[in-house]
Design brief:
The chain is mostly helical and 65 residues long. 51% of the residues lie in helices and 0% in strands.
Length: 65
């Protein structure tokens, strides 16, 4: 386990968006809103479109990253 994983476990923090009580129905809205953060997206080495953002949020929600 990494230092960060130990810290998260020790602090009893949620490890997924679902465990943090983020409703799954909100994931498309979060992905759409992420597309508005152009100052962050333009510097990303990999192009992220809304579908990719939704896939990332879905993985973070389910813990299948």
């Amino acid at each position: 386990m990494s230092w960060f994983e130990d810290l998260i476990a020790d602090a009893a923090l949620p490890t997924t968006l679902s465990a943090a009580d983020v409703p799954e129905r909100d994931l498309p809205m979060l992905a759409a809103d992420a597309m508005l953060q152009q100052r962050l997206l333009v510097n990303n080495p990999v192009e992220v479109d809304e579908a990719a953002a939704l896939a990332l949020y879905t993985a973070a929600w389910s813990g299948s990253a």
